[in-house]
Amino acid sequence: MIESRDIELTVNGEARRGRCEPRMTLVDFLRETLSLTGTHIGCEHGVCGACTVLLDGESVRACLMFAVQADGANVTTVEGLAPPGEMNDLQRAFQAFHALQCGFCTPGILTTVTALLRENPNPTEDQVRHAISGNICRCTGYQPIVQAILDCARSRARVIATDGGRAK
Amino acid sequence: MNAPERAPTREKQVGVSTVRGEDQRFLTGSARFTDDVRLERMVHAAVLRSPHANARILGIDTAAARETPGVLSVFTASDFGGPLPLIPIRLAPIPGLERFLQQPIAADRVRFVGEPVALVVAESRYIAEDALDRIVVDYEPLDPVTSIEQAMLDKALVHEAVGSNIGSHYHVSRGDPESGFAQAEYTRKERFRCHRHTAAPMETRGMVAEYDGDGDGAILRIWGATKVPFFNRRLLAKMVGLPESSIDMIETDIGGGFGVRGEFYPEDFLVPWAAIQLRRPVKWIEDRREHLMATNHARETECELEIGMKRDGTIVGLRAIVMADLGAYARTGGGVALARVPQFLPGPYRIADYACEVFALFSNKTPVGTYRGPGRYEANFFRERLLDMAAADLGLDPIALREKNLVSAAEIPYDIGKLVPWEGPNEYDGGDFHSAFRQALAAIAYASLPRDGAAIDGRLHGIGVACFTESSGAGPSESARIVARPDGRYEIYSGVTTMGQGHETAFAQIAADELDLPLSAFQVFHGSTAYVDEGWGTFHSRAIVVGGSAVKIAAESMREKQIALAARRAGLAAADLRLSAGAVLRRDDASTVLEISALAQAAQDGDAEAQDATHIKARFDIKMRTYSYGSHVAHVAVDPETAQVQVLSYVALEDVGHVINPLLAAGQAVGGAVQGIGAAFLDELIYDESGQLITGSFADYLMPTSTDAPPVIPIMLEEAPSASNPLGAKGAGEGGIVASGAAVANAVANALLPLGVKITALPLSLDKLAASIRAARKKY
Amino acid sequence: MKPAAFDHVAPETLDQALALLVRHGDDAKILAGGQSLVPVLALRLASPSWLIDLNRIASLSGIRRLESGELAIGALTRQRMVERSDVVALANPLLAAAMPWIAHVQIRNRGTIGGSLAHADPAAELPAICVACDAILVAQSQRGRREIAAAEFFKGMFETVLAADELLVEIRFPGWPVGRAHGFLEVARRHGDFAICGIAATVDRNDGGSICDSRIVAFGVNDAPVRLAAAERALIGNRGTSDAILAAASAASTGLSPRSDHHASSEYRLELAQVLTRRALIQSMRQALHNKSN
Question: Which of C2, C80, C192 is nearest residue A133 as measured by Cβ atoms?
Fold first, then answer.
């Protein structure tokens, strides 16, 4: 019998802990143990991107990590992108552009894009398409997703411009 | 809650690109998909599936599995104490197919890789999968049937008792094909193939089943129902021996359907049955490897198509032999896809004389169901390719050829004959196919684009077009219920189901216009069997057409009843009153005669008349099939040395009669187009000669990503409103995909015109296209 | 698709990791980035009793330019770090050019350079880059340290010369000669997919402008990255005219025994090898012109 482990990590800014077998994936830990069901499982073999979360700020496939590996780490899931009950500008842009239909792939794309815009606040369309090439969407055909991301980036740039360059 | 503003006029909501209110829960991670459902004492199921395409089961040893700590039960066919029920056909009962039905778990025979053999229930999915590894099955492998060719030969049989792999063989026709062809000055016959692929929604199938309570009060609840919950409930009730009223099918948020999710599958019996046995909630979530081998496949069809024409390009006849591989069993979708191929082969063209011979074939592969635009995607590809070949042979411009043969607006309604065995004669009910075609060409700036293999920077450019018709609004009916609440909120209940189309917003828009309320006043509930007395679900693009019409009728009825009641109680004429923003007002001075929230309160307090005006049930029966139509145009650049294709631009144009929400309709068109274009190059379910599914994961089953998706220009026309329903709408869910394989295939063929590359099969994967190019080069 | 049960240990030092390798032998698998291993575990294609998790060994990660001019990269360095590194961009433009072709950003955020090399997928980019650059792969075990030439490291499909008790710890790329030009191309089903055929090429010239050395490495074609020696030879002594490039391209098929699978036939791979060799060489010639004019 393999012993379960206690792990402690920060999720969406909160200290969380839980007990898990070594083989429990990070995505299962988030969903089952921490009841954060916003992150979805689309394939469990690292291709579809539905399970993407931010680990220490970088987008990773939570189905390709074990929870024990995230001990001590800082994780952001879709639930942590805005205060409860609210949407941030990226989420509102998705709504405005109809960048989601069934919504199953959406959390993984939102986290991926959050990391993208942090690193590259003014991406070209090509850069956007390459940044989300690891997230499969079956419903939208990607076009409105790309439009929403570019619109959000442009709006943020305008805010910074009119804000005299202060970071958002 | 504040009373809505009493503005004298309100902007109409229908026709507006309203953003979806439901998006918030999806964007913030608070949606509730099936795997998000947690119940106390819930346990987890896993299915042991056959690793063989065709085999006898000599024995199953579950002892070690059952002894695994954390395992509650391992079920096999022998646990059912008697013959297992067969899963019947729901749609398209082509005679003969009923001999190929599947029982929900294999007893002594498996017929495809992925067929359920045992069900394990354990404390966690992890443990359940451990137990799967410990079940020992003694198989005797048999020779499998793995191709249409093999199936036709009838040497190896999928179902010995039937004696043949040909499940059905029938003919449809219209006019007099023989005399038609006798007039032909030119004929061409080709064999085409559309490949096996599937919808692969991002969420796999799954459900949670709970059987709770005692005796007559016991209720079986199923979370995760969708598509056709009422039908499935009826079927499940029969199979488990419970009254329908004891079963609740609950629709959760659904991660895409596209036709493959929501039909009744073996697990839809096995998991509830296990929940009944164990008296604990059982969750089963399909993993992706299972999904690719167990969820319906689609589209594998070959067609020998022959066209007869005058030298000037006038079509005088069309003859076809259609062979579809339906897999190992006939699924609930029966022969839908198969039967729609002959129906849509003639398309929007004037073809008086047409005959089609149809073969429904069975093989040792995953069973086939309906996938977005079933039969149409295939038929449009076959026909549009042949039209372009004929154009090239006759030296005619492919555009002019189509313009000559498209049914003209003056000929509409156009009788298409009786081309579907279980349906009567049909007709194209409205439209101007030429107008749609012209507008599609204009939208892509056809005249200015390089084509016919023009070489630019080492790539050959081509343009392909495809014209299509598409049916929608399948009947017979749909129900809606609207309830006005004392707090000013209105609840809409519908029997349609939703997998991402945005019906919650669209239905609110429809009701908002009838009741003159803001969208925020509405909450829309859909799918679950508790919501309406009877529902028919979502498929064949019927949700807006039939379901939305039911909502419109219900809302109209509510308005009329509220005005009538107010008139009676105030001693006024109904004609002098109007309903606005939650109150009945006098038309002349806009003074309030009756507050609806007060009426709703009265209803709650027992006022029967008030109840009648605030709780409305309606049903819309659709009496005729209605046809949308349109054209797709694709501009591609092909690298002839690597066979890589880039779709540079794409127009997906469809006349849908009346657009409820342009944003949502465009979303369907773009999504469908990308799905279908991707399938023309990527999606492919490949079996080897032993019947093993080689493309068993997303590493091998490829779908378009953001770097593959072309820019799509979606255009929704409203030139031909439908007479079939009060909205004047035609369905918009499938038009985006149905002509996409045809258009890109024609574009690629056009780009490779200088090389004389022959394209008769999908997919145009790199390897296959490279082989076609190589073959053409060898000829020179 | 849940993995079979395993125990997990995350040593803090290389020595501890090496000791664990010896202790558990065949019962253990190495967990680096996990981007290749975890799907294998999920599909239960492997069920090791132990995972030896290297991710806490800080000393195995890092990018340094050595005094010798070599570029030293720790095996556990994340691919994304290599991709973003200005040091790599200057010290090995070919490596920098290849990085964005590898899978997708989420994979590169966790995947390591050493993990990719030790996994030795015939269609992966990094093994080909190492062969093209004559990289030295450094392996360590309790028995000592071993420096292995990239050309000798990859034996076949998912097979390297690493012994069961060895870990790849560092990759050293020789200094980048002034004026070296490079080309990199691949054809895959979709962006980010494994290559059906890829070419990594370098071209060195002498002061007179003649090509004095070249590496043309094909990946995705054979079971391991392969130097197209006949194609290289066709360039030597030449100024890189289109004739020479065409000669090199047609010689590209020499020595290739391409795999065949449901994504691509061997015939197609062979065709691509020739086409992509030509295009990669044209790329490098254009770059050489560009370098000269700067």
Answer: C192
C194: closest CA of chain B, how far (Å): 9
Inter-chain contact A134–C105, Cβ cutoff 8 Å? yes
Residue ranges of E strands in C142-258: 144-149, 154-156, 159-160, 167-173, 181-188, 195-205, 211-219, 226-227
Contacts of B699 in chain A (CB under 8 A): 45, 47
Distance from C-alpha of B133 to C-alpha of B404, rounded to nearest angstrom: 63
How many helices and strands in chain C, by DSSP H and E?
12, 14
Q: What is the pTM of this model?
A: 0.97
CA-to-CA distance for B101 and A97, rounded, in angstroms?
A: 44
Chains A, C: CB contacts within 8 A come to 87
Q: Checking phi first, is residue B96 left (phi over 0); if not, alpha (psi -120 to 50) or beta? A: left
**Predicted confidence (pLDDT) per residue in C235-278, tens digit:** 999 988 889 999 999 999 998 999 999 999 999 999 999 999 99
- From B288, which residue of chain C is nearest by alpha-carbon distance? C1
**How confident is the model over C57-74, as pLDDT tens digits?**
999 999 999 999 999 999
The contacts of residue B232 (CB under 8 Å, 6+ apart) are B225, B249, B262, B264, B268
Q: In whole angstroms, what separates CA A144 from the centre of its chain?
A: 18
Q: Cβ distance B17 to B662 under 8 Å?
A: yes
Please tell me the CATH code under which domain A89-167 is placed: 1.10.150.120
What residue ranges define each of the domains in chain C, with the CATH number in brackets?
A: 7-53 (3.30.43.10), 58-173 (3.30.465.10), 181-293 (3.30.390.50)
Helix, strand or coil, per DSSP, at residue A125: helix
CA pair distance C55, C77, nearest whole angstrom: 10
State in Å, rounded, how far the first CA of chain B is from the last one.
78
Which pLDDT belongs to residue A164?
60
At C40, list the tokens: 């294998």
Say how far apart CA C267 and CA C255 lie, in whole Å. 14
DSSP character string of B540-575: TT-IIIIIIHHHHHHHHHHHHHHHHHHHHHHT--GG
DSSP H helices, C140-192, are: 150-153
Q: How confident is the model at residue A162 (pLDDT cuts 50, 70, 90)?
A: confident
Q: Which residues of chain A form CATH 1.10.150.120?
A: 89-167
Sign of CA pseudo-dihedral C42, C45, C49, C52: negative
Whether the CB-CB separation of B216 and B327 falls below 8 Å is answered with no
pLDDT of residue B7: 52
Helix axes A89-96, A106-119, angle to 10 degrees: 120
Neighbours of A, requiring at least 3 CB pairs below 8 Å, are: B, C
Residue C215 · residue C208 · CB < 8 Å: no
CATH H superfamily, domain A5-80: Beta-grasp domain (3.10.20.30)
pLDDT digits (tens, 9 = 90+) for B242-264: 999 999 999 999 999 999 999 99
Reference B30, options C137, A56, A80; nearest CA is A80
Can you give the C-alpha Rg of chain A in angstroms? 17
| Cα angle B428-B434-B437, degrees, rounded to a multiple of 5 | 105
Burial of A163 (0-12, 13-18, 19+ CB in 10 A): exposed
| Residue-level length of chain C | 294
Please return the burial class of B410, using the count of CB atoms within 10 Å of its CB with bins 0-12, 13-18 and 19+: exposed
Partner residue opposite A102 with nearest CB, options B19, B255, B706? B255
Would you place residue A168 in the very low, low, confident or very high pLDDT band (cuts 50, 70, 90)?
very low
CB B48 within 8 A of CB B137: yes
Q: Calculate how close chain B gets to C178, using CA atoms only, in Å.
A: 31
Chain A contact probe: residue of C105, C112, C119, C191 with most A CBs at under 10 A: C105
Question: Which part of chain A is CATH 3.10.20.30?
Answer: 5-80
